[in-house]
């Protein structure tokens, strides 16, 4: 059996999978979010470890097994969240700085003003943004009371859990590629970038392939190898069996993450993020990634902010009640625009209002905007990779909205496919750990992935193109609105 750990932003989940890849038992627990100042988000890494260890024990007990029955452990995790700990005591040296935390935005503005954008993009595949770990580590030393020196260990959540599970100080390449410190071609920490950002290279964990033996865990009985560690979005790409270049998945949650398998080519394109999908000792698979900040949270805003719907599901009924959008477009740039525009000064905009506009139009426009944003990201990625998308595999909370999924299919003009097992992130970690441990082949994994529903395009391509054209005009009107 395989124990798969999904350490997420709001909680930790553990799953026990059978030899056939079927989920046997799972356990979940939330942990505390700390918001000490506006724009700051922190986690207590000690609490993350306590909660994670507990859910592992609960899932194992529920499945009636111990470590002796496990072939391997796989870990997937919230990415970019940064931890500092003492190698000697094994205790955190400060609160973890979470991916959502914006405290290093000014430091990033400084790096951009000093002209380092090209260097960072070429070496790391990333845009300079407070989202990534590098400036968070630097902040801990500069402002957070963390002392550099031999005892200091830095790492993202994968490395922290590995250290607690096995005593090793290593990270995997998919997580390392989210730090702004990794050279994504040499697969090593980049000394020049570490120096530029002010991060002591000797405190960083050893970067290792996503699939390899990271260490052995004796906490649950027996001695179980940790054979895979992988960031959550890359795990979902693997769990959706997007193993061939060009295949892509989109996760529709609070925001959305579109990842497309880019094969062995680390192609770097302005506006897109190039990230490491996964790697073993022979090969590295890259992925193009688009981060869309506001999709599901626009529906939350209709419910909690505007209060024009009572539940997220009601947006579907309202959208269906209209034959068309009557020219109303909602650009949900409520937190600026991410890929492919990267405009922090864009703001939410609703255009095309008339006396006949009602709440159904607003709800429909919010759902349409989800689909348009994904379509824009798909178009940018297809241009960059010169790979047409064969179909889009989807997961996340909004896939429950079948009107949205049909509209997505229509504007993309390719099928949208929902898998049978919705927990694609944890599945990805389990599959990768099983393959790495020699339990399965990647062919087996593709066979374990099954589709539950396929949407086929029904709208004419001309009609889709005209909607996307009007949407693009609306996006232009939202850009730069809050520029000082
Ligand atoms: P996360 O993992 O980011 O918390 P989920 O995958 O749980 O997100 O998805 C929740 C999001 O999906 C919420 O923002 C919610 O507004 C949206 N959502 C859930 N169900 C629907 C629905 N039927 N129609 C539209 N939006 C929905």
Walk me through what this model shows:
By secondary structure, this protein is of the alpha+beta class. The protein is 35% helix and 24% strand. The chain is built from 15 helices and 23 strands. The protein has helices at residues 45-63, 105-113, 117-124, 134-142, 157-166, 173-176, 191-197, 232-239, 296-305, 314-320, 359-385, 402-412, 424-436, 442-448, 461-478; strands at 2-7, 11-17, 23-30, 42-43, 72-77, 82-86, 96-97, 152-156, 170-172, 182-183, 188-189, 206-208, 211-217, 224-231, 248-252, 256-263, 273-279, 284-292, 329-331, 349-351, 392-395, 416-419, 451-455. The strands form seven sheets. A seven-stranded mixed sheet has the order 17-18-16-15-21-22-23. Strands 3-2-1-5-14-13 form a six-stranded mixed sheet, sandwiched between helices. Strands 4-7 form a two-stranded antiparallel ribbon. Helix 8 crosses helix 13 and helix 10 (314-320) packs across helix 11 (359-385).
Strand content: 15-25%
- Model regions low in confidence, pLDDT < 50 over at least 5 residues: none
Bound molecules: adenosine-5'-diphosphate
Mean pLDDT reading = 94
Gross geometry: globular
Major β-sheet annotation: 7 strands, mixed
Q: What is the total tally of β strands?
A: 23
Question: What gap, in angstroms, lies between the N and C termini?
Answer: 56 Å
Q: In terms of structural class, how would the helical and strand content be classed?
A: alpha+beta
Number of helices: 15
**Main β-sheet, spatial strand arrangement:** 17-18-16-15-21-22-23
């Amino acid at each position: 059996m395989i124990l798969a750990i999904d350490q997420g932003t709001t909680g930790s989940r553990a799953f026990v999978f059978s030899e056939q890849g079927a989920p046997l038992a799972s356990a979940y627990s939330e942990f505390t979010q700390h918001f000490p100042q506006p724009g700051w988000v922190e986690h207590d890494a000690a609490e993350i470890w306590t909660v994670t260890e507990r859910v592992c024990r609960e899932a194992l007990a529920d499945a009636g097994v111990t470590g002796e029955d496990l072939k391997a452990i796989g870990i997937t995790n919230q990415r970019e969240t940064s931890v500092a700990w003492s190698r000697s005591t094994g205790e955190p040296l400060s609160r973890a700085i979470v991916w959502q935390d914006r405290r290093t935005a000014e430091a990033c503005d400084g790096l951009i003003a000093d002209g380092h954008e090209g260097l960072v993009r070429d070496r790391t595949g990333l845009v300079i943004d407070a989202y990534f770990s590098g400036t968070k580590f630097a902040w801990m030393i500069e402002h957070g009371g963390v002392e550099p020196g031999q005892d200091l260990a830095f790492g993202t959540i994968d490395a922290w859990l590995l250290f607690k599970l096995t005593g090793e100080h290593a990270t995997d390449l998919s997580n390392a590629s989210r730090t702004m410190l990794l050279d994504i071609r040499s697969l090593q920490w980049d000394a020049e970038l570490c120096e530029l950002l002010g991060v002591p290279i000797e405190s960083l964990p050893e970067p290792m392939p996503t699939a390899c033996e990271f260490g052995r865990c004796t906490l649950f009985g027996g001695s179980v190898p940790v054979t895979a560690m992988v960031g959550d979005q890359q795990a979902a790409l693997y769990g959706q069996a997007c193993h061939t270049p060009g295949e892509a998945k989109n996760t529709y949650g609070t925001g959305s993450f579109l990842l497309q398998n880019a094969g062995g080519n680390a192609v770097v394109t302005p506006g897109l993020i190039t990230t490491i999908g996964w790697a073993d000792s022979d090969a590295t698979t890259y992925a193009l990634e688009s981060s869309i900040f506001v999709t599901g949270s626009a529906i939350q805003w209709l419910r909690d902010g505007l209060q024009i719907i009572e539940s997220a599901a009601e947006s579907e009924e309202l959208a269906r009640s209209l034959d068309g959008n009557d020219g109303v477009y909602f650009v949900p740039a409520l937190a600026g625009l991410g890929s492919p525009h990267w405009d922090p000064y864009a703001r939410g905009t609703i255009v095309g209002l008339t006396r006949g506009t009602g709440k159904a139009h607003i709800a429909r426009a919010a759902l349409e905007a989800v689909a348009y944003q994904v379509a824009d990201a798909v178009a940018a990625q297809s241009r960059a990779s010169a790979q047409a998308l064969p179909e889009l595999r989807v997961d996340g909370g909004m896939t429950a909205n079948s009107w949205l999924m049909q509209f997505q299919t229509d504007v993309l003009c390719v099928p949208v496919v929902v898998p049978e097992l919705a927990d694609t992130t944890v599945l990805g970690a389990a599959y990768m750990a099983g393959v790495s441990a020699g339990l399965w082949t990647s062919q087996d994994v593709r066979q374990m992935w099954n589709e539950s529903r396929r949407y086929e395009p029904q709208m004419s391509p001309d009609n889709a193109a005209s909607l996307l054209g009007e949407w693009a005009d609306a996006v232009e009107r939202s850009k730069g609105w809050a520029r000082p």
